[in-house]
Amino acid sequence: MKDELPQGWATVQLGEIAQINPRHPKDLDDSISVSFAPMAALSESKPQFQFLEERPLSEVRKGFTHFAEGDVLFAKITPCMENGKGAVAIGLRNGLGCGTTELHVIRPLGEIESHYIYRFLAQPSVRRAAKDNFTGTAGQARVPTSFIEQLEVPIAPLTEQRRIVAKLEGLLGKVDACKERLAKIPALLKRFRQSVLAAACSGRLTADWREENQEAETAAVLLKKFSGNAEISEPNDLPARWIRCRLESLADLITKGASPRWQGISYTDAGVLFVTSENVGWGKMLFDQRKFVEPRINEIQPRSVLQKGDLLTNIVGASIGRSAIYELDEIANTNQAVALIRLKACLEKRYILHVLNSPSLVEHMHCQEVDVARSNVSLSDVREFPIPLPPLAEQHEIVRRVEKLFALADQIEARLARAQSQTDAITPSLLALAFRGQLVPQHPNDEPASALMDRIRQAEDVAGKLSRKASARRPA
User: What is the CA radius of gyration of the chain?
Assistant: First the structure.
């Protein structure tokens, strides 16, 4: 590394330029107030504390880590260390702090910039090296003090350190602002999709289509073809030729499965695919994780055997309201947390899916929840779901428009993922440039780092001599 550094830089061990894990002086008054930092107070990306508590020194002097104004904090336990937790201790009460024992404290000597050390330790390469040197058992692995003491640090001239810190602060501030703006987009896309579904299920999305297709068969005629005298209504809040009907009027089957335990059936590594609420997402099935049960479940629970094209909606727990269409050719069964809806053949299934996922019907489902301990919607309530039903031709047009708009949202999401990935790569690149001496220009008149190191060593020698003299005068 020394050969790669710019002129005037030096490579030293961190223990040569900083005190590692110092303690507060013993003669401090225990009644004074100090700042206290639990692990949650440390950010994963910024040197500032997220919050600080205040406690009497007498409460935290023993059993906690000590630090002071300007110290650099480095989380030493997994996974906090890998996640980047750290801080520069600024704004401490009476200039003193205590905190979780899972911290290494680095107190820069001389005029070494604390933020320079913090940014060096924040590099992914340093965190990976620290992980490679973990000691302890899984879940309790920690970075040993020896790693921190022996860690090689490229030291720039003091004035260049300050330029690097200022430059990084400006650039990383812009990166953080960009990340914050990108982080708002998923919520905007969610609201966009909800707005599309709301417009689709109220008729607003296809208002222009109805003007051009007034001869389309009414929904009432469609429903009477396959449901006979089914009870229907034509409310004023829906377009002409639309009706509102119960979900059971549109289905050949509405049911749910049961827990395999209730039937004495075991989970297996292979067998019949067993669909749970985890597999039913918003508009799509999620099969990253699959469960299988003994094949005899289909004999014990034949009504809940899935067919391709069945609608599934979650009716238990935090995922109530998520609905999707089962599109696999694979025979499967389902549990009691998922309602199976087998629609009449003459309906556009994807339109009914969009209705089930629409904000108004999801809200309706949550209003039907029972059992405070674990929310659930009963099958009788599912059968009563109010469905706004347009003519069949308009159902097809609604699906076409919704899927076109959703495809646009999907494209934006893909571009967002690429933008976030690129943005995440900027910070490590900037830090790498900074500590190779390539972020800011070198000034030929800067005092070299070797002179700074000489002053630090001389100060340490003097401090060592004074400490030895004090020890010699102390009575045995």
Answer: 33
Q: What angle do CA 347, 353, 354 make, to 5 degrees?
A: 110
* Residue at which a domain ends, from 375, 390, 405: 390
Expressed as residue numbers, the domain containing 329 is: 217-390
Who contacts 153 (Cβ-Cβ below 8 Å, separation ≥6)? Answer: 11, 12, 13, 14, 17, 117, 120
Specify if 15 maps to a domain. Answer: yes
pLDDT at 416: 97
Token pair of 225 as six digits: 């073809």
Shared domain check, 446 and 325: no
> What is the DSSP secondary-structure string of 107-149?
EE-TT--HHHHHHHHTSHHHHHHHHHT-BSSTTS-B--HHHHH
Coil, strand or helix: which one is 182? helix
What is the domain count for the chain?
2
What span, in angstroms and rounded, lies between the C-alpha atoms of 173 and 181?
12
Q: For the domain that residue 46 is a member of, what is the CATH number? A: 3.90.220.20
Do residues 30 and 96 share a domain? yes
With 80 as the cut, is the pLDDT of residue 432 above it?
A: yes
- What is the spatial distance between Cα 234 and Cα 360, in angstroms, rounded to a whole number? 18
Residues 467-471, mean pLDDT to the nearest whole number: 53
- pLDDT tier at 318 (50, 70, 90 boundaries)? confident
- Scan for tokens 């935290």, then name that residue: 60
List pLDDT tens digits, range 53-66.
999 999 999 999 99
Instruction: State residue 233's pLDDT score.
Output: 62
